[in-house]
Every structure is written in structure tokens, then in C-alpha cells.
């Protein structure tokens, strides 16, 4: 898993590689949530409330453009809960690779802020 392009305030884009070729893409469904979270997240108390309410959603797209999985952050105050929904059927190898890529992406996004 690698970040596509430079670090951006607008949206996160990741590429999942297999044998040096791009196999899947992970991207935010609605980049406006990140903008609102970064602007309002720094305001004391109000920022805490918005971080609880604004929950990003990430999509895993296959190389052919079909959406395979959707990861949604659930509202929580101190922990991070995520739900992964299967949008399209995948073979076992692709599904495992996509799930592992989502775990790595969540860790990278946590470090991103």
C-alpha cells in the first residue's frame, strides 16, 4: 500500500500493489468531510463534537473501476470503530489483500492526523 501523490488536505488516495502493478485503489468517498474536520477540529469542545459526528468513508476500487469494499468509521469518542461492507464479490485472495490494505490505510491515516 502506498500513498498516491503528495500528502493532501483535500483527500486521501492510496494504491494497492501486487507484483509491481496497481491492483486496487483506496480513496475517500466524500473529501468535504476531511475539510470540515480539519477546520473545525481544532476548536476546543466544538472540535470534539465534530470529530464525533464526522465519520469518513473509504472505498476500495478494483483496477477495472468497480467498487469492491466500503469502510465506514462509526461514531465513537475515544476508540475508533470501523465497519467494512462488501459491495461486490471478490475472490479469496483479492478480499484478503483488500482487507489487509484497509488495515494499513487506517494506520497511515491515523498517523496523518
How many structural domains in the coordinates? 1
CA-CA gap between termini: 18 Å
SSE order in H/E notation?
Answer: EEEHHEEEH
Q: How confident is the prediction overall: mean pLDDT? A: 82
Spatial strand sequence of the major β-sheet: 1-2-3-4-5-6
**How many distinct beta strands?**
6
Number of helices: 3
Unreliable segments of 5+ consecutive residues: none
Largest sheet: 6 strands, antiparallel
Report the β-strand fraction as a percent range.
25-35%
Computed over alpha carbons, the radius of gyration is: 15 Å
- The geometry reads as elongated
* Structural class designation: alpha+beta
Helical amount among residues, as a percent range? 25-40%
Question: How would you sum up this structure, described in words?
Answer:
By secondary structure, the protein is an alpha+beta fold. The protein has one domain. The chain contains three helices and six strands; from the N terminus they run βββααβββα. It has helices at residues 32-40, 46-53, 92-112, and strands spanning 2-3, 13-18, 21-28, 57-62, 67-74, 81-86. The protein has a six-stranded antiparallel beta sheet, with helices on one face. The longest helix is centred in the C-terminal third of the chain and has 21 residues, at 92-112. It is elongated and about 45 Å long.
Amino acid at each position: 500500500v502506498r500513498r498516491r501523490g503528495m500528502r493532501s488536505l483535500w483527500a486521501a488516495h492510496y494504491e494497492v500493489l501486487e507484483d509491481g502493478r496497481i491492483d486496487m485503489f483506496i480513496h475517500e468517498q466524500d473529501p468535504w468531510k476531511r475539510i470540515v474536520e480539519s477546520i473545525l477540529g481544532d476548536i476546543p469542545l466544538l472540535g470534539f463534537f465534530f470529530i464525533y459526528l464526522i465519520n469518513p468513508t473509504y472505498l476500495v476500487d478494483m483496477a477495472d473501476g468497480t467498487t469492491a469494499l466500503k469502510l465506514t468509521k462509526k461514531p465513537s469518542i475515544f476508540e475508533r470503530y470501523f465497519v467494512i461492507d462488501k459491495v461486490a464479490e471478490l475472490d479469496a485472495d483479492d478480499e484478503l489483500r483488500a482487507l489487509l490494505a484497509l488495515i494499513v490505510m487506517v494506520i497511515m491515516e491515523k498517523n496523518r492526523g
